[in-house]
Structure formats: structure tokens, C-alpha cells
Design goal:
This protein has two domains: about 60 residues, Trypsin Inhibitor V, Chain A (2-Layer Sandwich); about 70 residues, Trypsin Inhibitor V, Chain A (2-Layer Sandwich). The protein is about 30% helix and about 30% strand. A hairpin with a 2-residue loop joins strand 8 and strand 9. It is α+β, with helices and mostly antiparallel strands and about 180 residues long. About 10% of the residues are buried. The longest helix has about 30 residues. The chain is elongated. It has three helices and eleven strands; from the N terminus they run H-E-H-E-E-E-E-E-H-E-E-E-E-E. A four-stranded mixed β-sheet has the order 7-11-8-9, covered by helices on one side. Strands 2-5-3 form a three-stranded mixed β-sheet, with helices on one face. The mean pLDDT is about 90.
Length: about 180
């Protein structure tokens, strides 16, 4: 009988301790995690990168730039193109907002070796890597429609140099005559 009495006292005490533990955890987590204390994400699209610190401090948020490789003509250089979480989403104070920023210009790409390949292949290569095909001129050469020279802004260039993406490349082709 004494043993059962002591056992019930221990079970009762451990039940109280467990209850107090869960109450402390429940209310403690609400305080620590700022439960139901949200900030609305502002629309950062088009915001200049130099103004981001001020904007983020006003809204008690942080930011990190995760990408700036895709240039868009729709936005000014060094402005925000998009962000995650999106405009209007509710986040907690000091949440990090991930930004995609418009770079200051197009990235540079290596000019491929187009010399002595056909016009058709050269056109495919130029368009696939992001350049644009410009003016095509012909010159006396036995190789009909074979690329003889590459020009950029009126100057002859060699394969392997770096040019901004979307640059216009002009080609000189053979006309098939000696």
C-alpha cells in the first residue's frame, strides 16, 4: 500500500512538471518566434540598388542579391528585376528577401571560330549563343557562302575575343568566283 501511494505521488509530480514544461515551451516559442507579428513585403521591382538599404530598414527586412546575370531592357541597370518573397507577402521581422538585379550591361561572350564554315552553320551558331547576325557581304572566293572574315562595328575581329551578348556581327562570305 505504501508503495502504491509513493508511486501515485511521483506520477502526479511528473505530470505537473511535464505540464509546466509544455506551457513554458508554448508561450516561450510564441515570444521567441514573434508569432503573428508580420511585415508586408514592399514592391521592390525597379528599385535602385543604392536605395535598398533605406527601404529595407524602413520595413525591418534584410536582403541578399542572388542573381544579376540576365540583362533586361525593361529595367534600368542596377535595379531590382524580381524578388522572393513577392510583393504583398507577409513575412516575419528581419526576414531575408532574395533579389534578382539587372546588371550594368550584357555579359560578355567569346566570339566562336566561324572562319571556313557555311553561312547556314555560322548563322545558327551566332543566334544560339546570343549574338545577332548583321550585314552579310560577299567577296570573290571559290568557297561559295563560306565565312571568310568577321566584323564588329566595322572592324575586323578575330575569333576568341569577348563581345557583349546581343552584339551585331557582320560576315564576309565567298561568292563562289575565283
Amino acid at each position: 500500500m505504501l508503495f502504491i501511494k509513493i508511486l501515485f505521488k511521483q506520477i502526479f509530480k511528473s505530470g505537473i512538471v511535464l505540464f509546466l514544461f509544455f506551457v513554458c515551451i508554448y508561450f516561450g516559442l510564441n515570444l521567441i518566434t514573434n508569432h503573428n507579428n508580420y511585415k508586408t513585403v514592399p514592391d521592390l521591382s525597379g528599385a535602385y540598388i543604392g536605395d535598398l538599404n533605406k527601404i529595407m530598414e524602413e520595413h525591418q527586412l534584410r536582403y541578399e542579391i542572388i542573381d544579376s546575370s540576365k540583362f533586361s531592357n525593361d529595367y534600368l541597370p542596377l535595379t531590382v528585376i524580381s524578388h522572393i518573397p513577392s510583393k504583398g507577402d507577409e513575412v516575419k521581422k528581419n526576414r531575408k528577401i532574395y533579389l534578382t538585379v539587372n546588371p550594368s550591361g550584357y555579359r560578355k561572350i567569346t566570339v566562336p571560330n566561324l572562319i571556313q564554315i557555311t553561312k547556314r552553320n555560322a548563322e545558327t551558331i551566332i543566334n544560339s549563343i546570343g549574338f545577332q547576325l548583321g550585314q552579310i557581304t560577299y567577296k570573290d572566293n571559290i568557297g561559295k557562302d563560306m565565312v571568310l572574315e568577321i566584323f564588329y562595328k566595322g572592324e575586323k575581329i578575330d575569333p576568341g575575343i569577348l563581345l557583349p551578348k546581343t552584339s551585331i556581327i557582320d560576315l564576309v562570305l565567298g561568292n563562289g568566283k575565283r
